[in-house]
Every structure is written in structure tokens, then in C-alpha cells.
Amino acid sequence: MNSYSNKKDFKVVDSLMQISLSIGSLYSKLADLEIAGKKDSDEYRKTIEYLKISIETENEVLNSVFSLGYKYSEIVEYLRKSKKEGKLQEDYESAIEEDMQNNFLIRILSKLNNKKTTETGYVSNFLLEIMEKSLGISREETLRKVIVETELKNGLKKDYLINFFIILQDFCTKKQYQNTVPCLLLSKYVLFYISPSIETDFIESEFELPEVLCSNASIVATLYSISADIYEARKNYYGMEAAIDSISEILNLDSKNDPQLSSDAIIKMCFLCSSFMLMDDESLHNLNYEFHSKIEGDEYLAQYPNNSTNERIVIDCFKQIARYRKKQQQLPISKSKTRY
């Protein structure tokens, strides 16, 4: 295989990029139709059918990429080199601020990662051998641990995203935010576009959002007999990491003390509240305490002397979480103490 710089070697990857771009155009059209109040129209449903066909084609081309012997690392490097303008965003909050055209590589990389896991397994034989010889852990046990951790993390990621959609939809129904609804709805479809792991279920339901979350992570926990303690610890950790990132994003918003929240601020609030949904009461209480300690500290006040608007956004999220939690529906978690 020649270097990625030889574009003739990557025609199938170029095709993948073009198909993913066309899928982005279809998502943009769905957003425009919902913004125009045409979500319950034949045109909206027909666009979903076109989307299904395009995704099938995308998956077929993706299969060809691997069957033709392309190395995963080479594909990723070629994709990164192909993005000549702008920055390839790596997180949801940054990516959602971009349009479909600037996000197609995130979609492809996500699908490549999923495909790589399916094709090559969750962990290399080399790592399995090291774990067996150095730590005396059998290959089967190591593989099981990695599978469980990966599946649980994927389940938590899905819960985080679905909670975001549910909370975003709640903002869209409030009168005081009606002027931001078009931007909020577009953000919803951008996130669907860059999150192919959840798009299939939502396409089948014509992008109807559930009123409450039926937790994917709790299903994984039950399936693999993960103890309640381990499940809660992983859930708290995922939520805490996401929350800390979101709080930092909000504190650095260019709010200019505007009492009217921008669509950007609302989106970041939705991400923050979504992360809170994964955390237990004690973790939330501790984070709330740490947040107030930070904004009252001399170092912070010297750096952010007039940041009360952004601080209030975070405080409002802490206040609102109780209402969102009342709407949450969780499947029962196994009380088994089985280790994995």
C-alpha cells in the first residue's frame, strides 16, 4: 500500500466522504422542514427514506474500505489531511457549533471506530498476551473486562446524548426561548449526524424523542451482571468529566451580560444538565460546592471579574436538575455483586 499522499489509492475513501456529505445535506433538509413546521409532512418522511438509502450505501462503501485492505491508521491520516480548512473538532460541544459540511469527518471517524471494533475485536492479541504473562490474567478474562468497559461506556454515551435531546426539546417548548428554536433544532440534527451510533433507532421513529430516558447503560449493567456499586461509579465518573468540561465552556461564554440567553448558551446548558443526569446526589452536591468555592476564589475573581451572567447559567442548571430527574425513567440495576 502506498502512502496516503497518493490520492489514486483512496478513491473509495473519497467516495465515502462524498456520501457522508450527502447524508449531511439530508439532515440539513430535515432540520429545515422541522423549523418550518413540516415535521409531520410527506416531504419529511420521504427525506427520511432517502436518508435510509444513503446510510445503507455509506455502510456498503465502509465495508469496501476495510475489505480492500486499507489500514485504519492510513485512512484516519488521509481523512485528516483532506480537511484543508478549519479544525477537526473532537468533542460534541465544539462540533455542534459547526454546520454539516464541517462535521462530515467526525461522522466518518466515528463509523470507522465502530467498524474497527467489529472487525478486529475490542483488544489486540498482543495486549492479551501481555496481560496473561505479566499479570496472570487469562485472555478470556481480559477480553471480558475490556468488552464490559467498552459496552458500558458506549451505553453511558448514548444516555448522555439522549438526555441532551430530551432537555433540548424542553427548551424548544418554552416561550422565552422561541427566537432561538431554529438554531436549537439545527443543533439537534447536527448531533444526530455526528452520532451514527444512535441514529438508527431515531430514524426508525422518525426522530421522535422519548419523554423519558430508558437507560442504555443500565441494560448493559444488567446484561453483564455489573454490580450496582461499579455501575454507579462509572456513571458518576462519566457524568463528572462531562460536567466539568461543560462548566468550563459556560464560564468562558461571551455573554456580555445579556439577559437573553443565546442558542449557544442554551446548548451548553443542555449538555451540562445531561451530564448532571448521570450523577448521584452526593456527586452533584460535591460538584456544586466545588463550583461555588471556585467562583468565590481570588484567582478566579482576578481572571473573571465580571462573569456573573455565565455563573448564573451554571447555577440555574444545578437548580433545574431536580425537575429533569423527576421525568427520568431508569431500568432496575442488578444487585448482584458479580465482579467482571
Structural write-up:
With 340 residues, the protein is an all-alpha fold. The protein folds into two domains: 1-120, no CATH class; 129-340, no CATH class. It is built from 15 helices and no strands. Helix 1 (11-35) runs antiparallel to helix 8, helix 3 (72-82) packs antiparallel against helix 5 and helix 12 (263-276) crosses helix 15 (308-326). The chain is globular. The model is unreliable at 1-8, 84-90, 118-122 and 329-340 (pLDDT under 50).
In short:
By secondary structure, the chain is mostly helical.
Instruction: Give a count of the beta strands, DSSP E runs of length 2 or more.
Output: 0
Strand content: under 5%
How far the N terminus sits from the C terminus, by CA atoms, comes to 40 Å
Structural class: mainly alpha
For the biggest sheet, the summary is:
none
Number of helices: 15
SSE pattern, N- to C-terminal:
HHHHHHHHHHHHHHH
> What is the radius of gyration?
22 Å
Give the tally of structural domains: 2
Arithmetic mean of pLDDT: 83
Low-confidence stretches: 1-8, 84-90, 118-122, 329-340
Shape: globular
Q: Give the oligomer, counting copies of the same chain as homo and different chains as hetero.
A: single chain
Q: What helical percentage do the residues reach?
A: 55-70%
